[in-house]
Design goal:
3-stranded antiparallel β-sheet, 16% strand, 5-stranded mixed β-sheet, 313 residues, elongated, alpha+beta
């Protein structure tokens, strides 16, 4: 497909094969070798490059996939490149991957087993107009949703997409047994070591002067309880301690609140606590192209004028 000997992909001579890899920010120069063999060897080199986790491909390979699916290379009757995409996916599916076009027409790669996008999205990049619209819809939802809806509809899909697994939410019926955590989950490092995470989520703003459930002193107590209490991992059939705690808020986490918790925790526990506020949730949710919760979607109304005048009886 890279050299263009496959149907639905443009033929590339030696010069244009080199240009293809240059477009992918790779310093590979074709010098007359057998085109298919040479290209296969270069792709083997790319696949051997470092990757963050087994479900994340090397960045260079993602660039190759995106360049292969560039809609400017449409051939014949395949103007939208659907046939090229289908041919590519036959090959990728054997290795557990699937390519697709995102809403901006950019080629992406998805790990089928974990349903994660193959490249870590940058939450600080500029957003497209459609992404800004989705972000605003999610923002409106975060302002009105309950704490349980924040967890079930937003945080659980987000952390699954980010590569966490065995995500378990306490829920109302287990609140008495949650021991300071609303959710626990684990993350497998490239070395196959496993880290355990607990999440303490609050719907609104966290500051250092509240007296309600958003009181940062209450959060501190729950985080301390979380880090000191064991959880049962059914996959290992043993109890383990939480390695890190996420404090997640559907509103702002003020600098005063962060400092207050940091001062209350001893040095060993301070490094175990991470914060995620509304801005982090919005940016990560949008750049990972997750579907919005049903409550965030605009209501669909049908005008009376659109209805049939003829009754069905």
């Amino acid at each position: 497909m890279v050299v263009g000997d496959a149907e639905h992909f443009p033929y590339r001579s030696s010069k244009y094969i080199t240009e293809f890899f240059e477009d992918c920010d790779l310093d590979f120069v074709h010098a007359g070798e057998t085109r298919q063999v040479w290209a296969a060897e270069r792709i083997e080199e790319v696949l051997a490059m470092p990757r963050a986790t087994p479900s994340v491909m090397p960045d260079a390979f993602i660039r190759i996939i995106r360049r292969l699916l560039d809609k400017g290379d449409a051939e014949g009757d395949d103007a939208d490149r659907i046939k090229a995409l289908a041919a590519l996916n036959i090959m990728l599916a054997r290795e557990g991957w699937a390519a697709f076009y995102d809403e901006n027409g950019l080629g992406q790669l998805r790990h089928i087993a974990t349903n994660t996008i193959a490249q870590t999205a940058n939450p600080h990049r500029p957003f497209t107009p459609s992404e800004i619209e989705r972000r605003d819809q999610l923002l409106s939802y975060l302002c009105k949703c309950s704490e349980d809806e924040l967890i079930e509809d937003v945080l659980l899909p987000l952390f699954r997409q980010l590569g966490f697994h065995r995500i378990t939410a306490a829920g109302h019926k287990d609140k008495a047994l949650e021991y300071g955590k609303d959710v626990w989950m684990k993350y497998t490092l490239p070395t196959l070591h496993v880290l355990y995470f607990g999440i303490q989520a609050k719907k609104g703003k966290l500051d250092s002067s509240g007296v309600s459930t958003a009181n940062v002193a209450e959060i501190h107590n729950q985080v301390t309880m979380m880090l000191g209490h064991e959880i049962f991992d059914p996959e290992l059939s043993r109890r383990v301690l939480v390695d890190h705690a996420f404090i997640v808020a559907g509103g702002e986490i003020t600098k005063q609140a962060r400092n207050w918790i940091g001062n209350k925790l001893d040095a060993s526990k301070r490094s175990q606590v991470m914060f995620m506020d509304r801005e982090d949730i919005l940016n990560l949710f949008v750049v990972n192209n997750l579907p919005l919760p049903k409550g965030a979607l605009p209501a669909v109304t049908q005008a009376w004028d659109d209805l049939d005048d003829d009754l069905p009886f």
